[in-house]
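Data availability (excerpt). The following record was deposited with the supplementary files.
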Amino acid sequence: MLTITIQVNAPSGQAIGIKEDIATYLEKFGDARVVSVVEKLPEQLRMDGPPQRGAGPAERTRQAVYATGNRWAIENFEATHG
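Predicted structure:
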């Protein structure tokens, strides 16, 4: 019995197709079965925690600006959004 671990740098959502292609290829060498498939999706970049539920676009922007702690950005936001 031979166990092979493979890492593939491919776009997310293609795990099933890649798994099937590799399994089909390996079957010509003998019985092959897939033990597990793990897909690590890219993480969303956030400046702070997720915005509060129900917050509108202006409130989400305000939260993001205040989360930076940048005094100039906060003053600019307040001046333009009153």
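Summary of structural features: The mean pLDDT is 80.
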